[in-house]
Specification:
By secondary structure, the protein is α/β, with parallel strands linked by helices. The protein contains eleven helices and 13 strands. The longest helix has about 30 residues.
Length: about 375
């Protein structure tokens, strides 16, 4: 396992490209059915894991790049001098800077989560539930009403809670909201949300990193909508959508980034959820084919690294390619070969390497130039 400037550059480029591909995929089909959601969530998890492993392995395939990339790596490899510190490459200094900011961001998220959970403990419990999660384990869930909240949400990995806003809900609307948040808790969505948010906070410098959280949120909300509405009749579905709209009008930023809210995303995601609940559209075969291609590309990205390919001018002058005109071999009497390039003697070979087997072979010469 190797960590170097090349693995970092490969990591940034591949993760950025894969994020763009996943964003384009979900943008083309915002109403994801169950197979589509599985593709997207698998892609998000695999991409998050890829971000955590910017390394080169023994089985990694090296791809050499000769244009622009060598100059870029040369720039970031240049040694700089900092006060009171030993000389080090520029990219190491930048990595230290990035690590400091990532640590600060993680600390800020953890502090926000701690403060909000401490605030929630001061609120009276209005209801309590016992559910069985997808791992078959029993969990106790308490429900509180936050007078300052504008969105219903589920929070807490080990001690989950449901937070309801102080809005005027009918009994039916309240029951539907609770079912939505309980679906998040039972499905383990809080753990997935936590994992994705931590990865996004650490790798904030990856291009288009915000897409990872948006895609995950969209897939989780559609899954919860499906679990709540799949057994409802049309009038109950309309009541559920009316409840979503009521919360959307008042919804502001979620007080904790690790919480899974009833409302996430922008207006476009709300439209997609409405359409899914009312129509239950199916994703096309083309979507599944492209999604499978993206997953395969993510898997292969673990075993690829880009390396700069550059030959200095003084070395280039003493090298040749089998494609060069005037290169040929001369068969010697002892079975060896003399190599000539443009009538200039380059050296003797005991056998012909695979790289130059295409060169013409001439008869032996007693005198060499």
């Amino acid at each position: 396992m190797t960590f170097s400037l090349s693995t970092i550059c490969t990591h940034v480029v591949l993760c950025g490209v894969l994020l763009v591909l996943m964003s384009a995929l979900t943008h083309a089909a915002p109403c994801l059915d169950k197979p589509g959601r599985i593709w997207v969530m698998t892609g998000c998890v695999l991409l998050a894991v890829r971000m955590l492993l910017p390394f080169e392995w023994k089985v990694t395939k090296t791809i050499y790049i000769s244009r622009i990339y060598p100059e870029v790596t040369c720039f970031f490899n240049q040694t700089i001098q900092l006060p009171y510190l030993p000389n080090c490459p520029l990219y190491m200094v930048l990595l230290c800077f990035v690590a400091v900011i990532s640590t600060v961001r993680l600390a800020g998220l953890a502090l926000t989560q701690y403060r909000y959970r401490r605030y929630l403990r001061s609120l009276p419990v209005t209801e309590a539930f016992t559910i069985v999660n997808r791992l078959g384990r029993t969990q106790k869930v308490r429900c509180v009403t936050d007078p300052h909240a504008s969105n219903a949400l589920a929070i807490g990995l080990f001690k989950p809670q449901i937070v309801l806003p102080a809005l005027s809900f009918t009994e039916q609307e309240r029951r539907l909201i609770l079912r939505h948040e309980l679906a998040h808790i039972a499905s383990g969505d809080i753990a997935l949300k936590l994992f994705v948010e931590i990865v996004s906070a650490v790798y904030w410098w990856i291009p288009f990193i915000g897409a990872l959280s948006r895609q995950t949120n969209a897939a989780l909300e559609l899954r919860a909508d499906d679990l709540v509405t799949k057994e409802l009749d049309e009038s109950q579905r309309l009541a559920y959508l009316s409840c979503l709209l009521k919360v959307a009008k008042c919804s502001r930023r979620t007080p904790s980034p690790f919480a899974v809210g009833l409302m996430t995303g922008k207006e476009g995601s709300l439209k997609a959820r409405f359409r899914y609940v009312l129509e239950h559209p199916r994703t096309s075969p083309l979507f599944h084919a492209v999604a499978l291609l993206c997953i395969v590309m993510m898997a292969l990205s673990f075993f690829v690294v880009f390396e700069p390919y550059h030959i200095p001018d003084d070395v280039q002058a003493e090298t040749f390619s089998p494609k060069d005109e005037g290169a040929y071999l001369v068969l010697r009497e002892d079975g060896g070969y003399d190599l000539y390039v443009k009538e200039a003697y380059m050296g003797m070979l005991t056998s012909i390497p695979e790289e130059i087997q295409s060169l013409p072979i001439k008869n032996y010469k007693e005198e060499r130039p």
